[in-house]
Fold each of these.
Amino acid sequence: MEAVGSLAWSLRTGGRLGRRDKLRLTAQAMLVRIGALPSKLRDRLGIGAKSVARVDMDRIRIPDTRAASEALDLCSAVSSPALRNHCLRTYLWGCLLSSARSMSFDEELFYIASILHDLGLTERHNGKERRAHCFAVEGAYAARAFATARGWSEARSDTLFEAISLHLNVRVDLSSGLEAHLLHQGAALDVIGARLEEIAPADSQAVLVRHPRLGFKRELHEAIKLQCHARPQSRVNFLYGLGFGGLIKRAPFAD
């Protein structure tokens, strides 16, 4: 069975949810609600998070490739400052979370996926891809075109597509690929604060100082409201009906 958000699912549906898709997302949402429980209660239930070691932020590598540089140029050109910073933080959060498990991943692919994962929310791309009925799928199409134009193989470009399309799911397991898993983890941390307690406070503060949030909660909420109105069969509209908007509002960030 095709996973919601997978490449095959995205190409077939464009991002429109079916009944079974909604059931699967509902089950995933229940797991997220457990993760949103107060830390003391999660500890009592035996599902508390483990702390990670301090990480020298200066040792997190930014891929020094032409494609990585051009991805940031594209993101900066089409995104608001708040959205651009969200994309940059997504990469840093993913790197910090991966450090606890010494994960080995394609740094360039993960970086570009992080930087381009919200192209579907930008004015240049929103509503421009006729095959897409979901902003994550729309962004995936745009990112794949970017990669293909720079000589990436079809397989690697498809991996980028799938990581971006999957990131809107409630849960993305390691079985979907390290880059897709880390993109989801990094974005979820920045949007709803998921697993923030696993990051040392000094490291969290360093990320926020390097790339300030600039009212990101408010901007994201407004952008998603427009998506929900324009694409009622999309994942984001369904998840907002399950309370995702409240998770954004209660995310443990000052903005």
Amino acid sequence: MERHKAVSQTRIDGRAAFACAAYLIGVGLAFLLERIGAPDGLVRVLGPVLALAAIVLIGALTRTTRIAAFYAADHSGAPRYGAAAYAAIAASLVACAAQDGGLAAPRLAALAVGFVLAALVVAPLARGAGATSLRDVVSARYKILPLRLVLAGVCFATGVLIAAAGYEVAADTLPGLLGLSRDGAIAAIGVILTLIVAPGGLAGLFWVAAAACGMIGLVLFLPIGWRIAADSGAGAPLLGGGAEIAASLARAAARLSAAPPARSGFDDVAVALGAAILPPLATSAFASAAASSARRAGLFGVAAAALFALAFAVGAPLWQAYQGVAGQSLRASALLISAIVCAAAGVHTASRATSAESAYGYENVLASARLARSRGLALLAVGIGALCALNHAVRPAEALVGALALSLAFLGPPLALAASSRSRAAHAIASVATSLATIAALAWTNGLAFVLAQAPAVALTGAAAGFALGWAASLFGGSPRGAAEPPPAGLFVESPFDPDA
């Protein structure tokens, strides 16, 4: 077994090295064509075509008919690839939220705290339970049909919101790169998302995100490399970069201080907690071999994401000074890839509205039937995202805030209760019902517009009320401590899920 894993990892490393080399050669060719005077149209399309072809090929090659590969990527994600996938997904969510000045809605600091909690706390704990999604942590802990249905609806709605946000940004970016109409771009994006998620499930999303990390990182660090190479001395670029970092931090601080006071406290806590349990941020953990690997992937991923943020602060002013077609196309390609990764993460989240675990008699359901359900939900999410993009139905920042609020309000309370051995299914159902009742009461008292405008704070209020009731019921109305039923040590068969496949 260990020898098989070593051979598999060597094969993955070789493919990753080849993909990186091929993309770097393509980027270099684009700048060379620009230098020798090739038509601007050719230079402009070369970067995005290479990037899109790479992620489509990766997604298509992950096609599988095995449960372990589709739902858990065979647990073959080494920490270095897990870190890359996490950084790419986090950067993609922030890039989509930042469009049209939307970054001020979910505070950057709050999102960063939530991302760190997701990578270092929530995701490793879920992986330690043997789960392949946050939804399954709850549904396997509490074996009750109503809760299952609620979680399925919440998971699907959360995924659709995330997918619609990425779809909208991609539909705005692709026409300017390839000269397509918006309708044609929406159709092309739908095909791309289908090829990324439907064939391989989590494996497709994981490996596409890991590859996208390299593309995004190249765009962020390339202008810094140019600056250092162009200057004759080493001190000048470092001092210039430091000044640009200070200026960028000052501008960010000014934007945060200019935010409405009503959003500065409770709302920021809600954004952080909602981001911590946003399902796509746990992708790297579920593809990891063990909880320890998930923790390392999360730690390295947080470090990579911080480097990305620093590189953006330094490199954004340098990119503005570069007017070449190849560079501008490369920048737009990075935004396009980020949007597609965000949309693919949402589509995969929606596809996991069905459970992978066998607590409900799924052991009698063929693997092909389970995969067909997930793929059907993925296609439905792609279709809804396309309809939203056609009608400009969502703003990316608002959709992402709605997704984290939805997760916080209805996934958060039972997920927190699952850590207690005294809690029962009735307590989890009561927590979700209380959260819903609290949100409905706020909507009745203050109006639906208030609830939508204050979605994270309202969601946190509902989640806090639901958790408090469920926790109190488990403490005072549950079984005696000695008779408490311990939580399951492992929710799923680790390897493989389907031994007969």
Amino acid sequence: MREKQGTWDLTLCLAEFAYNNAVNRSRGKSPFDIVHDYSPCTLADLLSLPPDAQVSHPASPFAQNIHDLRAEIQRKIALNNDSYKHSTNMRRRAVSFEVSDFVMA
């Protein structure tokens, strides 16, 4: 740990990017998305090249793999969130309050 104490500034930008790109569970958006109204570009956001551009043959399967992996992860996160929602809603009970009721806040 001591040998890495002087190199914190080299990883600070990566930590900042990771924090600003992480989706907050309660807000459903990342801090970057909230401020700029779009998500920052990452390796997973590979764009299609213009038709006249030369495509690297090893890069094409890699890019397709990244796109497929991202789609699979998004699908699994959505299924996981639906599972959490379903299990939480099963234990939820409907409660209604009147104007003069005492409640603990």
